[in-house]
Amino acid sequence: MELLRSPKLVPSVILVILFLAFCDVNVMRASAEQKICNITEQELEECKPSVSGSDPPPPSTECCDALKNADLPCLCSYKNSAFLPALGIDPDLAMKLPAKCGMKAPDNC
Questions:
Q1: Which residues are CB-neighbours of 51 under 8 A, at least 6 positions away?
Q2: Would you kindly state where each structural domain of the chain is located, as residue ranges?
Q3: CA distance linking residue 12 with residue 17, whole number of Å
Q4: Are 40 and 60 in contact (CB under 8 A)?
Q5: Lowest CB count within 10 Å: 11, 47, 51, 95, which one?
């Protein structure tokens, strides 16, 4: 505790705290920008109501816009994995989403 009271160490401690805060902000920014099959986590969240639950609503305009930029063959590769259910997404509903957005799903999907 005596070290923290030293006036010589206060600027160093402040610099370390600022550096750690800067790193946290950059990590949060990077994670918010991560993409899966060319669709961001935020865009996935836009579609989540339409691919979960027993009576899902139609996809929103934002969801369909995001889906139009997604790599559909890549997304289809997850249809039999545990990844979608782990995110609370029903794979069967997810595979029907392109048609609900007026898009053609890949043949192997």
A1: 89, 90, 93, 94, 97
A2: 3-100
A3: 9
A4: no
A5: 11
Distance in angstroms (rounded) separating the CA atoms of residues 58 and 97:
9
Q: State how far Cα 42 lies from the chain centre.
A: 5
The domain defined by 3-100 folds into Hydrophobic Seed Protein (1.10.110)
- Residue count of the chain, please give it: 109
User: Tokens at residue 20, please?
Assistant: 């750690």
Q: Write out pLDDT tens, residues 60-98.
A: 999 999 999 999 999 999 889 998 899 899 999 999 999
pLDDT at 99 over 50: yes
pLDDT, mean over the chain: 78
